[in-house]
Amino acid sequence: MATLSDVARRAGVSPATASRVINGSSKPVTEELRERVLAAVAELQYVPNAHAQLLARSHRSAVGVIVHDVSDPYFAEITRGLQRVATDQGRLLMICNSYRDPDRELEYVELLRGHQVAALILAGSGYHDEAFTRQLNEKLAAYGATGGRVAVIGRHEHSGDAVMPDNRTGGYLAGRELCELGHRTIGVVAGPRILTTTTDRLAGLRQALVEQGRDLPERRIRYAEFDRDGGAEATARLLDADPELTAIVALNDSMAIGALATLRARSLAVPQRVSVIGFDDMPIARDVTPALTTVRLPLVDMGVRAMSLVLGAEAVSPRVEVLPAELVRRDTTGPAARAATGSAPRARRADPAS
């Protein structure tokens, strides 16, 4: 079995330097030396002494959380769940906003590791970026080697504990609903292409449309930031390109609210002229006028489950918990406008108490 001295010798560094890297010391170590030590750890399959890990972890009281933007209602709700469990267990949360910048996420992993947090939770979407994914996994492996616990929320190319919202099924439910209401000309207001959340929600939506004999050409998809202004601007571009759209799927509720604003500014009645479906079911969705039909994800529960995984008993193999999506019918969806004077599809009533 490899020892710390073996790792230091293989990396060509002193045992003290190897220890700083492996144990996440806040003392500075150059990136070149850090990479050499981590490579030696991987090659030798070095496992730190379990008793030393226990001692190191015993004084750690904080949990690090990296979110894309805590002011985003999606992450605010997840954070509520994280905070609930952390508070019950006497833990302090250290929350970092990456603003969907992969490089900043890598920096925060190093920063939180240097602070020797007891656990680390990545609460944002994964990225379609192989170089970033490789670097992230290396840094998380080094953190785990010191006794740190890791969980992710959303789809990441990371082998470890994960809480997965069923984004694909959610997209499918939105698409099926609009098809059953007779819509054929459907536009999509999507988030950034690089995010796995965008990919998964689009894939489910597209599957539902294909099953119903509809298509979703790229010209009816507009990508923008996952916020209100992004939704408003993307909706304007969709309508300029195809004024005959009868429905819009926004891949989060903030974007859906922006879509409603653009439709209102253009005097296009919702849902009589254009139906709108959002995604997430953030608290304001039921209070806008008209109340937003959306796909509900159990956002608070996602936070609760992720924090429970990292603070609970360790498992032998990675655990993946998939939390369900459900459609919540409110007032922004109705039969396709073109069918309103003929054999219109059956109108759906809003779900009670939603």
Automatic annotation (TrEMBL):
Residues 333-354 are annotated as: Disordered. Gene3D superfamilies: 3.40.50.2300, lambda repressor-like DNA-binding domains (1.10.260.40). One of its GO terms (molecular function) is DNA binding. Residues 333-345 have a biased composition (Low complexity). Keywords: DNA-binding, Transcription, Transcription regulation. It holds the Pfam family LacI. Residues 2-57 form the HTH lacI-type domain. PANTHER family: LACI-RELATED TRANSCRIPTIONAL REPRESSOR, LACTOSE OPERON REPRESSOR. This is LacI family DNA-binding transcriptional regulator. It comes from Micromonospora parastrephiae. The lineage of its organism: Bacteria, Bacillati, Actinomycetota, Actinomycetes, Micromonosporales.
